[in-house]
Amino acid sequence: MVAYAIAGTVNINFETDPVGMDQEGNPVMLRDIWPSRDEVAQVVGQFVTPALFTEFYSNTLTRN
Description:
The chain is mostly helical. The chain has one domain. The chain is built from four helices and two strands; from the N terminus they run αββααα. It has helices at 2-7, 30-33, 37-47, 50-57; strands spanning 20-21, 27-28. Strands 1-2 form a two-stranded antiparallel ribbon. The radius of gyration is 18 Å and the shape is elongated.
């Protein structure tokens, strides 16, 4: 969804069409800005903790 918003259209082939242009007018492809698996794993490892889930879901199933 975000990639379509960046591109400004849903009529795009992300393999061949740029999602935009850089400051010099060069095409920017989705693969140029998409994070690698390692980058995602690093962020998840740093910020996604059991305490985060405990806090977020602590009131989900409680009855008032």
